[in-house]
Write a structure and sequence with these properties.
3-stranded parallel sheet; homotrimer; 50% helix; alpha/beta
């Protein structure tokens, strides 16, 4: 089967192919460092079996859903739950529809990940199609009942050394508490993502901010009290393994207001007397506050800027978020981060890892900035760009100005557990291919390439996230 | 001759070259689907001989004119007519000047198209130069007198299955009427391009809008009347073969105003009491209106956004439009289309094909959007980007997020009849080269590559434009 | 040693490699044309020995300093002088630190340039590292004492036919006067860069503008007087070999105000009653004024737009400018140059060479604009993009729309004398590699490739800067 060819993704021409083939075996089986992602901590806490193939591969994977939708398939027929509770297709029906349309994924990373997962987890090498839909479904279903496919067993088999989940500021961290109790914490960690209490335009913001105050015993009506609430929650999150915070923001804007201006801004926000500019200013100031807290407590700060969320209002109303309607937009990191970096950019204890969906940032902004500020590193290609061509464009445009050592290695950023080894494998293959091309052009020595392949496959992520 | 090498544009290295060479013969001779372009319908209606080589290759080709101009040659010497009627060089003199400077086109798609046209239509394999200028001119001139080079014969020889011209809303469609009468309509079709009555800042807009009302018997002073006028003209255009509308707009902005706001906007525009913001809002609202009409009548909507027109005011004044002074600009499709897509994006009968001159849109906006909205497809690389490297960047940045099946195949978008087979050939070669590289990297199976090569060379355009 | 491999940077695969290898020897030893750069004219006027290795390779090279800083090394430890005069590391200590961290430069152009310089100037082929730090330092130090490494000897050995330095409008041109006296002027030339008297927000602007008036005997309180002062200084600069002016501006904006508006603007600026919009307008109008003067006197105008200067305010305060804190930003050349080009774009005596740090400009704006306006050419990749991948992206995105003959060849734009041959060599290798790939794909004949390789390596820069 082509999609399982041992040389897949390697350069097709010599000498680059042979060099990639020489580099790859040394990194292929290194443990996986997964410092950023969206897997469900309940899986690891409870270690229960996955319910069925559609629930594993289809319904939670917005990459897959969106592509099927884009070719006219309805979310009802794909079994995506509705808010109004009206019935949607059952798992087996949805699976068949998915299988019949699997040809649409030719050339997409989704196909790469799914093909890899089917083989890696279930030993399935047939191509998914109408013909194979039922037999593959049944094989998966049977395998899910075995201990080898319980969540913790999957982490073992994938050699996941550490994996971070992501929780909002108000999250009770129930599952992490359970893992603390049974000694599994550490391998699984949380990440502090306070978007729920940092963005005034999110529905329910005011209520959550008040809960935030109650939860921490701080007066969130005072700017310092609100910041202190974050300080306390960050401490709690660290107790549950967090080494990092994460911030999903529409723009990269940051601000550095005087104390009196901050309080006035908070007053306006709490009173409801504010417009979009104040909301943006609030988010912008909060980024700098988070940076200042990171200087204090050493947590690594991650910035994921530029997703335009829920661009299909009818879908949002009908079924909710994270169903494929988020679209990238332009980001301006140079102007956006000016305030934050002027304040914290040279702090020895500070680390900020940047992610973008706007590839024009790579060579123009991120590489030059990471090649200057001691606190800055650049995260791997994010979302749509976590793909073979996306990784090539990233390395092409990043390495010359940022060097290899300002890159934060790889993170899989996924909700799909089985795609984790697949994604790391694509990254490692692409890194080996990239290095193979450069060694082939006599731009790097082979020994340097070996070092860098290992670094970018494993150590870079540990270093970047202070996991050593 | 290098430019006629049978393997031109294919990957130079193995195994990609052999795979491309295997794919290409299966698509090289497929009929041409030309759903969008700017050929003159009079050619096909009258089927008269082309006048002379300069009038065929030089004067109407703004790609060629602009390059010669950029190296200091004057439009007078190139025979480009002036508005003031002062004499310019005759065709033969201009042709010699063009030939003497043909070396300037090294590496440009213009050279690829012209070399291909000279060989394909005239059997000329010599390189155009001062030395060959006269003999090539005479051979072309002689051939143009033969029946083999009449416009309909060219369509036959090029295997053009269907070709769309583009007419403004007020166009009398005389030539299409003539073709209806003699049974040629259908192979040649019109396209509804109402820019002339949708953009308040175009000179003569008000007069045209009033003509539009008279022509349709609608009161264009009322918003609904104006929209009804479009409804009627669209129907007429469909009678003359139109399957699509086309919209050339400076930005991708769309709006979705309440009825009362629309009428107020129209009142301001008709009264002349409006500024650039209102003009932009009018264009933006008209895009959504056109989408709503497309939902009604099923015509495919094409959006060509981002050309900054006539950037050289002195040239515009001296000789008019379409002479090379149009330059691309940034486009924001995500925010721009929000209103239109929120309204019509999920309508089953709606199809919107997007084109851009801003390649940063490919991976960041167009591929993710086309990979989500059922109504959206992405058109092929447009204008400056309809070139070998342009096609490579397009496929590189589009396929992973949009898949192959959200692409609208190829369209040549040309005024130059003889460049049509040349342009389709470049597209087909590049598609085969692209697939050859991916098969070579074991990312696609060869059988999938065969399917996709055929699809993108022929069927995709038929499907996208509902020409089946 | 890999970094000195004779085929370095050439395509790794055949046939492109052989073609590149065939093209390169014909251009490798052509003289160097250096029409834009920042070397110190004192070197060439005084022809004194360089002091020590750190002063040659480390302290003045912001590319090197910034990368070391980005990985946590302090500028104190790297011997970068402080404004407060507090002690910093001595040259030898700094050199050792640099050597120990040289592995950070893997994959960067800095390493390419330094490795090449060490070999070319000093015959050193060992890799710089902790182990080799001292021995390499001593070999360099010893060599610097020899006549072969005096500045003028370096120009001879590098076959520098002509090199331009860059001086501000008020510069006394002392060193160029000395070179005029001893007959060296002409090989070394100045360039008129009036940023110091064109940008109101630069510290000390008002004082300098008054000095400018005194120096030229013009009344700078009147717009025409101020312009006349430029006219006179341009004449003086031409006497000292200047063929070009250079303009470093944050944006590409230009304006074309009426005389009365210009005077009002100057009045506001001189009175100090103005905001950022007026400062931008002043810079914008000055660009058009410089273009009009260029029409008059034939000096080539260079525009370097888009650097965001001194983004680290604490570094600026502590140690000053040009230490790595300048970051690229987006540029809009289409709208920005509209006023200037409408006024001067078709003037036969006018030439404007554009440079950008925003690679999205290449295919979208610069190539189309250069392929239209007779006055426009595009400069080579600038700054962060003067690198192997940067050059590839540039040629990939520029050639098809601009052709080869609207490119201004190469310029090294460096402060680092020894990097000059290294930088030209990278350009020439990349040009040969690019042409090798295209010949390999049968897109160019080999004879055309030979012509273009020579043109882009040597003649293009002479032509573009009117140095013939």
């Amino acid at each position: 089967m082509t999609h399982l060819h041992p040389d897949r993704l390697f350069p097709a021409a010599e000498p680059a192919q042979s060099i990639a083939r020489e580099l790859y075996p040394e990194v292929a089986d290194l443990p996986l460092i997964c410092p950023h992602g969206h897997t469900d901590p309940a899986w690891f806490a409870k270690n229960e079996r996955f319910s069925n193939p559609a629930a594993l591969f289809l319904t939670p994977d917005h990459y897959v859903l969106r592509m099927l939708r884009s070719r006219g398939l309805s979310y009802d027929d794909l079994g995506v739950p509705r808010k109004d509770g009206k019935p949607v297709a059952d798992g087996r029906t949805a699976w068949r529809l998915f299988a019949a349309n699997y040809y649409l994924f030719a050339g997409t990373p989704s196909k790469t990940w799914i093909d890899h997962s089917l083989q890696w987890a279930f030993g399935i090498e047939e191509e998914l199609s109408s013909e194979t839909a039922d037999s593959i479904c049944e094989r998966i279903d049977a395998a899910l009942a075995t201990p080898e496919l319980l969540p913790r067993a999957i982490l073992d088999r994938a050699k996941v050394e550490v994996i971070a989940t992501t929780e909002f500021a108000l999250d009770p961290l129930t599952h992490h508490q359970a893992m603390e109790a049974d000694g599994y914490l550490g391998r699984v960690r949380t990440t502090y993502r306070p978007d729920d209490v940092c963005d005034p335009i999110r529905a329910g913001f005011h209520d959550r901010l008040h809960q935030f105050g109650e939860l921490t015993g701080e007066s969130i009506g005072k700017w310092d009290g609100m910041i202190n609430a974050h300080r306390k929650r960050r401490e709690i999150f660290r107790r549950f393994g967090a080494v990092a915070t994460d911030h999903g923001v529409p723009t990269a804007n940051t601000a550095d207001l005087a104390p009196i201006e901050k309080q006035a801004l908070l007053d306006r926000v709490l009173s409801g007397q504010y417009g979009p500019e104040d909301a943006e200013l609030f988010r912008a100031q909060m980024m700098t506050e988070m940076a200042m807290l990171a200087v204090e407590d050493g947590m690594v700060m991650q910035l994921h800027a530029g997703a335009r969320r829920n661009t299909d209002p009818s879908l949002l109303e009908e079924r909710g978020t994270d169903l494929g309607g988020d679209i990238p937009s332009r980001v301006n990191y140079v102007d956006g981060l000016q305030a934050l970096l002027s304040r914290c950019g040279n702090e020895p204890n500070f680390r900020l890892i940047l992610f973008t969906l706007d590839e024009t940032n790579y060579a123009r902004e991120l590489a030059p900035m990471a090649g200057f500020w001691p606190s800055l590193m650049v995260g791997p290609p994010w979302w749509f760009h976590d793909s073979p061509q996306g990784i090539r464009r990233y390395l092409d445009q990043m390495v010359e100005s940022a060097g290899f050592y300002n890159l934060a290695g790889f993170n899989d950023d996924t909700r799909a557990l089985l795609s984790i080894p697949a994604r790391h494998d694509v990254w490692r293959r692409e890194v080996c291919g990239f290095l193979g091309r450069w060694v082939g052009e006599n731009r790097l020595s082979k020994s340097t390439a070996h070092e860098i392949a290992r670094h970018l496959s494993y150590q870079a992520a540990k270093d970047a996230y202070k996991l050593n």
